[in-house]
Structures are given as C-alpha cells and as structure tokens.
Write a structure and sequence with these properties.
The protein is mainly beta and about 220 residues long. It is built from 3 helices and 14 strands. The strands form 3 sheets. Strands 1, 6, 8, 9, 13 and 14 form a 6-stranded mixed β-sheet that branches. Strand 8 and strand 9 form a beta hairpin.
Length: about 220
C-alpha cells in the first residue's frame, strides 16, 4: 500500500477542496450541542495537531490506526481529550473504553504533510508550503460523516494553526515514513464534550471519488475512572 493510501483514511483522509466543483458530502448535526469547538484551553484545530503527534508515535504493530478490535484504543491516552481513529482502507469494528471526564476527538477525514523525508511536504518547513502540500492530498475525498448513537453530527473543517507543529514518526510507522520534522494537519473533525456514562455507538465513514472507502464502528463504554 502506498504512503498516500496508508495515510488516506487515518480517520478518513482530509477533505479540503471541492471535487470536480461539487462539495464533499459532509454530515450535519442533528444534535449540535454535543459538538464543541474547544476543550481544556485548546481549539479543535490545536487538538488536531496533538492527534497527529499521538498517531505518529506508534509502530504499525501497536498503532490504534491499524488495530482491528479496539485493543489498542487506550494506548497513551494521557491528555484531556481521548483520540479515536479510522483505519487503512478497511471496515472494522472496535470496542473501546473511554473515561467519562475526557472529551473525544474524532477525525472523520484527515491528513498531514511534514518535512520528514519521504512525506508529502518534505523537505519544506514553512507553514504555507506544508499547508499547501496537505491540501494537495485531499482533492478526491467526496464524503465524511460521524454518527453517534444514531444521530449525525456536524463535522468541522480545521487546519492546525501556525507555526508547524513538531512530529516524530515511529520506526515501522504505518504511514510510510520514519523520523522527526515539523508538520501541518488539515481535516474534518468532530470534538465531542465528555459523553455520559454507559454504552454508545459511534461510526465514522469516508469515501474517495474512485470508490475507495472505509467505515469504522466503535462500541464505546464510557466509565468513571
């Protein structure tokens, strides 16, 4: 699988521009009060950078992105926001336990470009060049949705703010690159306020113009840890 396709659905891929002049199909909220735009002093855009730093830090064998059961979903979840992820172009169902005091960041469709050798932005280090390179990855995305407990949620377009954030890809990263550099992230996300305790279902879906698609279904258990 090429680097682009491995990155393509880390949470989906990123949607930025219209495809052939038509806007991607982005789900709108039936329950907008569940969706927030900041938490613990950071905006959704700032949390998206933290999401990429977290996702890049694992090798493929231990990465929540390549996990097919949910066994890895709790790895290094030590921030105020709990991160969920998509998959490398497959349909999977994951069981995941989430603390009741954490917000939840869901990347319906997302991508990044960095200065790391072999990445789409390399060797650029400027914010504008990396942001443009990330945008170039996105033109074929046609759909992004997040559904929580049967309700479609509003998906927010965000770009990580300047300056580029530091990133380190682990050895044997599932994203096809290794090493450290700086990055800009772009994507469509849902940032959820802490969920009520109990069981929830969450589904994220993304699709490309060429028919490539992913669906990730989460069975969430929110507990008072």
């Amino acid at each position: 699988m090429s680097k682009f396709w491995r990155r393509a659905f880390v949470g989906g891929v990123v949607v930025l521009s219209a495809v052939l002049g038509a806007a991607p199909a982005i789900a709108q909220a039936d329950q907008p009060t569940r969706v927030i735009t900041s938490y613990a002093g950071k905006t959704t855009a700032q949390w998206s950078a933290s999401w990429w730093q977290w996702a890049a830090a694992f090798p493929e064998s231990a990465n929540p992105f390549t996990d097919t059961t949910g066994a890895s979903c709790g790895r290094r979840q030590d921030q105020r926001v709990f991160f969920l992820t998509g998959s490398p172009g497959t349909t999977v169902t994951r069981d995941c336990r989430i603390p009741a005091d954490k917000a939840v960041l869901v990347p319906a469709i997302n991508a990044e470009c960095s200065s790391v050798k072999g990445d789409c932005g390399a060797p650029a280090r400027s914010y504008d060049k990396l942001a443009a390179a990330a945008a170039d990855q996105l033109s074929s995305v046609v759909e992004a949705s997040v559904v929580l407990d049967g309700q479609s949620l509003h998906v927010q377009h965000v770009v990580s703010p300047p300056p580029p954030f530091p990133i380190t890809f682990a050895r044997r990263s599932p994203f096809g690159v290794e090493g450290s550099g700086v990055s800009v992230a772009d994507g469509y996300y849902v940032l959820l306020a802490p969920l009520r305790q109990g069981h929830h279902t969450l589904t994220l879906h993304g699709a490309l113009k060429n028919g490539f698609s992913i669906t990730v279904r989460y069975n969430l258990l929110v507990v008072d840890d």
